[in-house]
Amino acid sequence: MKILFTGCTAKQTDDEAWKRARVKRIDDSSIICNSLRKQGYTVDRKKVKWGDDLSEYGLAIVGLGQFGSNNYSGEIFNALYAINECDNVLVFHEDWKIDGTMKSFKSMLDDETYEKTIAKKWSDGRHFYGGVDNQHFDKDIARQVIQDVIDAKYDAIIPAFDWGNKQLVRDIIGSKNIYNIDLTPYVLENWNISTTYASQIKERKHMLASLVNHKPWVNRNKLTWPVDYFGAKSIKEAKQLKTETDVFEACGKYWSILCPEYPHAGSGWFRIRWVYAAIQKSVLLSSEKDTEALGLPKVKVESLSNTELEDYANQLSETVLSYMWTKDVFDTRIREIVEAVGENLSISSQPTTGISKQTALF
């Protein structure tokens, strides 16, 4: 039997979506699908619609996101249909904003909110949520799937390192079985990034590369070193880097790489900047919950001498890289996950990969 890979965003439902994106990057969904296909599994990555026959699939990996967000509005109800139709389901929580996702799902249990959600339209008369105008759409079934997600009926897969307390994620999404995948080896391969350290002169400054404006978090931390921003167009002074390789190389010029704190800090949620800092032997400044989860000492980075920064960066590097997966480990783990959750999955004797080089990731 086949594997269905679907969800709420174009990158979850379309192998070619990256070609149309403003920021072209290898995404989590592509890494998963490419690995499975390389190992011989038949993976259909596509949108589904209410009424589709999904009986050929022994497993559905379904990405979910937040109600109320334009990013997820197009396919979220169709994704709920896929969950309902397939016997074996892995819910894919790709977005780090899992607390917002679950709060939005719980809000749908209010009858008035749910009815308004289904009826919501754009100014041109189109439904805000795709699928609700399908003749096969059943709002009661969709509501039940929402309840099942809240009740943690389904196993979950998340992008996360092996380090960290996954109970912090479980407390939010509820799933008893949470499988984590470390995307590092395929991100590094895609950008031809070596783990061999090449020494650079570092400045006593912070680097923050993100498409999101994290200035409020920076301000709350009352940093005294200068902060150089990259990527976020909403920040006037933010510089733009053409490729992910440029991002990686820039990290080597700073003593401090900033990683804004998230609600589930300490869980080891995947952020490639941890790996970049480790390879470049820079210090990564995030939440104290993260450094505690890694067993690293609590330090005031800006008060350290260059020698002390070097010692701490070496300690962080050794610790972070000790958890890093290889491609073989990734392939083995994703295979074990789909075989544990799926049923009667078939493997082709002529596997394909469909891996594409892409151009920017923050």
What is this structure's SSE topology?
Layout: E1 2-6, H1 10-13, H2 28-38, E2 43-45, E3 57-63, H3 70-73, H4 76-85, E4 89-92, H5 98-107, H6 111-119, H7 139-150, E5 155-159, H8 167-173, E6 178-181, H9 184-190, E7 203-210, H10 215-220, E8 227-231, H11 244-251, E9 254-258, H12 272-280, E10 283-285, H13 288-293, H14 306-322, H15 327-341
Parallel strand pairs: 1-2, 1-3, 3-4, 4-5, 5-6, 7-8, 7-9, 9-10
Helix pairs in contact: 4-7, 12-14
Query: Overall mean pLDDT score?
Result: 93
What is the alpha-carbon Rg in Å?
Answer: 21 Å
Order of SSEs: EHHEEHHEHHHEHEHEHEHEHEHHH
Q: What percent strand?
A: 5-15%
Question: Helicity range of the residues?
Answer: 25-40%
The coarse overall form would be globular
Major beta-sheet overview: 6 strands, parallel
Strand numbers in spatial order across the main sheet: 2-1-3-4-5-6
Helix-strand makeup class:
alpha/beta
- Strand tally: 10
What's the quaternary structure here?
Answer: single chain
Our measurement of the CA-to-CA distance between the termini, rounded to an integer number of angstroms, reads 36 Å
Q: What's the tally of helices?
A: 15
Low-confidence stretches: 355-362
